[in-house]
Amino acid sequence: MNKSELKAALEQQRPRITSLYGQEQEERQIARYGQLIDDYERAFGNTDCALFSAPGRTEVGGNHTDHQHGRVLAASVNMDAAAAAGQREGEVVFYSEGFEIKPVSLADLFVHPEEKNTSEALIRGVLAGFVQRGYKIGGFQAVSNSTVLKGSGISSSAAFEVLVGTILSHLYNDGQVSAQEIAKIGQYAENVYFGKPSGLLDQMACSVGNFVTIDFKDPQNVLVEQVDFDFNHSQIALCLVDTRQDHADLSDEYGLMPAEMRQVAAYFGAEVLRQVDPAEFYRRLREVRAQVQNDRAILRAIHFFEEDARVPLQVQALKDHDLKRFFELVIESGHSSFMYLQNVTSPSNIRHQSLALALALSENVLKGYGAWRVHGGGLAGTIQAFVPLALLETYQKVMDDCFGAGSCHVLSIRPEGGVRLI
What we know:
8-stranded mixed beta sheet; transferase; single chain; 14 helices; 4-stranded antiparallel beta sheet; Ribsml_uS5_D2-typ_fold_subgr; Galactokinase; kinase; 422 residues; Ribosomal Protein S5, domain 2; Alpha-Beta Plaits; GHMP_kinase_C_sf; alpha+beta; 2 domains
């Protein structure tokens, strides 16, 4: 299609764009995709391309349960990585706003240690993952930009992996590679090529879309279920509040969370807590406590058992369209993370307790009306809040006044994962 035909086809996608991004973003997203078409023509001298999108994600339930083979509830959001892409011979050329990405040759799909933590590693890894699973690959050229906030726990890298996988699926496999397969390929790329030992939560939520619950009991055969809930007509806003507290120098503290849980599991001859019977844990609590390094390990195990059991209740509340019960469970999840998992404040930095402050302010505004909890890894970064639209302006003002203008990001749950628009 020529440029005018592409833009006419884009206009025909307004209902879907509204579904993906929300009514208030319709014009902005039409303009954004129109600009991608212009940028593609400028970069490659033609408009022989298609338009693709892959969302970021938010964790809703199952805080620090995935590394213990537990259950999680996550959702795709209306922040995404978008691209105009078309076929190219022998290589992937990817222009992404804010990044300098070198071309990746299809003739070399080996791991390059020097590419660790780069976009090239993710592209090469996704290509290799497609080949290993028996799918077709080919070169492509793309221009892209992303609205996924970095460092906010929305998974910008997973969105990029799913975007590349979605492009390959549609350009060379007639769109027949499933969302779950794309997620697994993205995880492979991140683990083996990018060098980050992530679980499957991020990629699966980005790729499948809407609310999705994942059971990691068998990591080789995870159970995934999309939860059909129309969040966009619920009169609720999903807010992520960036407290602007740096994650730097917290790696050791993050590592202690799975390590201490595994200490408890090891007492029962297990690798992870999912393999331990909660009833037996409580029955033998005194002897377990005598063997582990500290009581925090015990409390973190209690968090896991309660949080893992809470996820199916959250899923059922959504299926029942019972937002009141869902909010109660979200708040319970947040309280468990604060009291038992202890990932809201860092013991090494008691002066700055921004997450705790944000949660206290959220409770002050939303108590009895919405829900609030720590988001993602914790210790610094973001909190999550479900805010009735009638309280949204007030909530935003309170958060922006405390943490700075623009700290409160208003999102919605996106009903689809990785997609081709035209």
